[in-house]
Amino acid sequence: MRLAPLLIALSLALPAAAAEKPTAIPPSSLAVAAQLREQALKDDTGWKVVESLTTEVGPRLAGSEADARAAAWAVAKFKALGFDKVWTEPVTFPKWERRSEHAAVIGAHPQPLTITALGGSPGGTVQAEVVRFADLAALEAAPADSLKGKIAFVDYQMKADRAGSDYRNGGAIRSRGPSAAIRKGAIGYLMRSAGTDQHRVPHTGITRFDEGLTPVPSAALATPDADQLSRLLSRGPITVKLALDCGWDGSYTSQNVIGEITGRSLPQEVVVIGGHLDSWDLGTGAIDDAAGVGITMAAGHLIGQLKQAPKRTIRVIAFANEEQGLYGGRAYADQHRADVRKHQIGAESDFGAGRIYAFNTSAPESARAATQQIAEALAPLGIEYQPTKGGPGPDISPFAAHGLAWAWLAQDGTDYFNLHHTADDTLDKIDPQALAQNVAAYTVFAYLAADADGGFGSEAKEVTPPNE
Amino acid sequence: MRLAPLLIALSLALPAAAAEKPTAIPPSSLAVAAQLREQALKDDTGWKVVESLTTEVGPRLAGSEADARAAAWAVAKFKALGFDKVWTEPVTFPKWERRSEHAAVIGAHPQPLTITALGGSPGGTVQAEVVRFADLAALEAAPADSLKGKIAFVDYQMKADRAGSDYRNGGAIRSRGPSAAIRKGAIGYLMRSAGTDQHRVPHTGITRFDEGLTPVPSAALATPDADQLSRLLSRGPITVKLALDCGWDGSYTSQNVIGEITGRSLPQEVVVIGGHLDSWDLGTGAIDDAAGVGITMAAGHLIGQLKQAPKRTIRVIAFANEEQGLYGGRAYADQHRADVRKHQIGAESDFGAGRIYAFNTSAPESARAATQQIAEALAPLGIEYQPTKGGPGPDISPFAAHGLAWAWLAQDGTDYFNLHHTADDTLDKIDPQALAQNVAAYTVFAYLAADADGGFGSEAKEVTPPNE
C-alpha cells in the first residue's frame, strides 16, 4: 500500500450514475454465498499462497531478478489453483536499485544510525550538520537557503489507528519532504520512518523529486534512531555522514499476472479483485502485499470450485510494481479503459492481513440495495456496512478514475505501520484466521457482485488522475 | 547478561558459614531505608544516567573506541553524582571486531538472510548446503563427519519466562554449538537467535571454540529468517552463502570504573553493587547493561545524599567487558581477593530494566534474620523474599567463588530476550517507573547491608571457578 488515504479522497469525486433499473441479487445467489463464506473460513488456501510467495520468491523489488520469478510464480499458482484462463500483460517502468546504505553520527558522540534509502533516492555521500524539524510544515516554513549545506531531518512520529489515517502525514513527509528540503538548500534528507513501531527496522517507500530540483540522498531512520538523533541534537550541533549507493538504472518490463474463473452466462463481464505482486526489498512483503495476492487468489479459487460458476467472470490480478507508482494499476487501466462497462466492479486488497471491519461500494442509488445485500452477507464476518465511506485500492484507483465502480473492504490496519515497508514484513506477522476472514469476505463479495442482476455503476468518464 | 542461569547454580555450592553472632539491622536504619525507598521511587537519577550513557556513548563494544569513551563517561558521571572516591582499575582482554556480515540463500530461491556474527567468530566466506537440527542434542548426536563441507543450522526457539530460564538452552547453542558442528565436519555454523522476539534483529553474543578445533564462521539468524530457512529446507536441499568479516585483533586494556560513598564508621568495609559498562555493538546497550549501571549509580548517589552515611562504604562498580567473558568481574576478583572479608556483600544488576520481584542473599544462618529484615524493607516494592533461590550476578560470580557473600535482586525478564544482544536494545525499551523501582530496591538493600551490625558471610575460600 502506498498512499491509500489520499486515494480514498477520490471517492468523493465520483459522480452518481444515471438512474437505471435497480440492481438486485437473487436469493439463490445469497444462499451460495453463505455456504462459500463458511467454507472459506475453514480453508487455508490463502495462507498457503502467502506462504508460497513469501518463502519461494521472498523479497521482490520491482525490476529486480525476483520480479521475474514472482511473475512466473503467479502464472504457475493461478494454474495450480484451477483458474481457467491465465495470462500476463506488460508493465514497463524505470528501475531503481538499492545497493548499500550507511549513516553515522560524527564528532564527540560517534555511532552508527540505522537507516534505509527512500525508493527513488540517488546515491551519494554527504556529511553535514543536521537541522531538525517537527513536521513537514515546519520544514516548508524554514527561511530560503537556511539549510544550505545542511541535512534536513523531519522528526514526525506517526500515530497508529485502525484506518492508518496518520499515513497521510507520514507518507507526505516521505514523498514531499526531500523536495521541500532541497528548496531550502539541503544537501541530504533524513526522516523519522513513517511507522508506528519501536524497532531498528527503518521504513522505506517511494519518494519523488519535483521537476527542476537536483535530487539529494534521502533516507529514513528507524524510530529508535530518530529518538537518538533528536536526543543528541538537544545537546548541541550534530554532524551526520550519510552514504547511499542506490539509484535509477534504465527501465524494466514486468507483468500484470491475471487469472480468470469464467462466468457462466456473461463471461465477457468481469469482477476484478487483486493485490500487488511486487514488494519492497527489505522484507518478504507478507502483509504488503502477498496477503492481498493470497486473499484474492484464494477467493477466485473457492469460487472456481463451485459446481456452477457465477454469471460473470472473476478476474484476479496480481499487479506489477504498485510500490513505485501504481505502474501495474495504471497499465491495466490504459489497456482496458475501452472496456470499462464490461468491468462490473473492482477491489484491491492492499492494507495488510488484518480483519476486514467495513464494506462499501461506489455504486449509485440504483445499486445501493445490492450493495446492502452484499453487506448483509458480509455481516456474519463482523463487517459493518458504512455507506458513506471508502475508496478504491491503489491499483484500482487509476481505472476508478476512468469510471470503474469500486468496492471497499476495509482492513484493520492498527498494526500495519509497525511493519509496512520494513524488514519486519514477514510471514510470521500474519494471523491465519484473520487471513481466512479476508478470504471469506472477498469470496462473498466477488461471487455476489458477479452473480447480481444488474451493474454497480461502471461507466466511461473523463479521467481524473489520482492526486499523488 | 551472559550466562546467568548457569551462574545461579553456583549458589547451591556455597557452604554455610560457621555460626557467629547473629547479624541485625537497627530500627533507625530501617527507618532511613523506608525514607530512601519512597524518595528513590520519585527520583529520576537512574533514568538520566541510562539516557546519558546510551545517548552520548551509544554502543560500546569492549575494546572499541567507544570503550574508552565509556570509561571516561563513567569517571565523569560518578564525580558529577557526588561519589567521594572515583578511580579505575585495569582490565585486559583480547579484542574482537565486527566489520561486516552477510548471508544469502543461493539457488532457486535466492534471497538475503538477516544474520549477525557471534562474538568470537572468525571471518571467512563459506557456501554450502545447510543441515538443520532441532536443538543442540540433535547436533551432538549427528554421526561423525556427517557435516563434512556443510553448514550446521541449530533451529531451537527459546521460550520466554520471567526468570529467562530457557537461556540455558539458547546460550548453550551459542557457546557450544559451533564446536559441536566443527567436530562433525561443518565448515560454517548458523543458529536461530537465542531470543524470544519476532523481529529482523538477530542476537549476537560470545561463542567459544574448544581447544584443538579450527574455528569456522558462526552466526545467528533473526527469528523470522530462521523460520524462512526452515520453510525452505522443508522443500528440499538449500545452499547458503555466509560471509563474515570479523575476528580477534590483539589485546586491549579497559577499566573497571569505581565510585564510592565513604562509610561513616567502617569505611574499609564495602557493600559492592554495580552493572557492566560494556555492551554489544548492535544496540546502545540500554537494558544490557546501561540499566544496571544507572540503577546502581543512582542508588549510590541517593545514599550519598543522606546527611549521615551508612556505617560501611557503598562501592559502585561499572565493570569492563562482561560480555566477552566476565573480564571486569574476574579482574576485580583477582585484584581484591585478599580483601574478601572486607566485602560485606555484593550484587550486580544485569538482567535488564524490568521490575524486581524477588530477593535473597547467600547469607548463612547467622545473617538470615538480617536478610529477612532487608526483605521486609523491600516488600512494599512488590518484592518477595525467596530464601532458597538466587545467585550472584555475572560479574560478582568470580568473587563469589572466592567467598564473597552475594545478594540476588531478581528482575522480571519476560521481555529481556526480545532485546538482549540485538540492535533493538535501545533506551525506548525501558520503562522509567520500573527503573525507579529497581533503584529503590538497590538503594534499600545497599543501605541496610552497609548499616547492619554484623556481616553476611563473606570469607576467603577455595576457588570454584564458574562452570562456563
Query: What radius of gyration of chain A results from the CA coordinates?
Result: 22 Å
Helix proportion range of chain A: 25-40%
Name of the level-1 CATH class of the largest domain in chain A: Alpha Beta
Query: Which class do the helix and strand fractions of chain A yield?
Result: alpha/beta
GO molecular function, one term (chains A, B): carboxypeptidase activity
Keywords (chains A, B): Carboxypeptidase, Endoplasmic reticulum, Glycoprotein, Golgi apparatus, Hydrolase, Lysosome, Metal-binding, Metalloprotease, Protease, Secreted, Signal, Zinc, Zymogen
GO biological process, one term (chains A, B): proteolysis
InterPro entries (chains A, B): CPQ, Peptidase_M28
